[in-house]
Amino acid sequence: DGGITQSPKYLFRKEGQNVTLSCEQNLNHDAMYWYRQDPGQGLRLIYYSQIVNDFQKGDIAEGYSVSREKKESFPLTVTSAQKNPTAFYLCASSHPGVRRYEQYFGPGTRLTVT
Amino acid sequence: GQQVMQIPQYQHVQEGEDFTTYCNSSTTLSNIQWYKQRPGGHPVFLIQLVKSGEVKKQKRLTFQFGEAKKNSSLHITATQTTDVGTYFCAHGGGGNKLTFGTGTQLKVEL
Fold first, then answer.
1. Distances (CA, A) of B33 to A23, A40, A61, A67, B8
2. Segment B37-43 mean pLDDT
3. A interface residues, B as partner, C-beta within 8 Å
4. Among A7, B29, B34, B70, who pairs with B46 as Cys (CB 3.0-4.6 Å)?
């Protein structure tokens, strides 16, 4: 089955620790995205990548970092500099072209930092 | 990116009643996407609208894009419990980026 996997589903960390969230897709999509969702709110774009070895900051990139060494993988690191890291993190991917706004989402990772 | 405001924020309906959520922008939008997120789940793409005045239907769901391309609506006829979730509109801009609205949370009571 083609799709996007994110692991783990739930993640707990102590304040001051960096943590890396995994995102893998086998849809052969060029573009990948990371969003943050807070309770009762919409999705906010953290980082996105349109092609391997290239990525751009989204609207709320501060305190986060990414890499795109492989087409299938787009890991997100939440650093200790992120002031409010507790949130639901969603990874997505899409094809270029006319369907580029049809994004496929992974199941998400709920991160809790205490 | 361009801001899209979505109303209402919450809607409770009795099963069988209709439901509508609206997405508004102060500027012209080149496109609108609609997504649905079930409670505890992830957003799922429903549809894309790109033409002025466009209307698309998916079973009990009707999607409209305004003539001026500044607003859009999603209407559900005769809601069912399976319609529960949050509905988001989203505008696509440069770099394949999507800007999401704040969402409308729909609850359906039996």
1. 23, 20, 24, 28, 17
2. 95
3. 31, 33, 35, 40-45, 48, 50, 56, 58-59, 90, 92, 94, 96, 99-108
4. B34
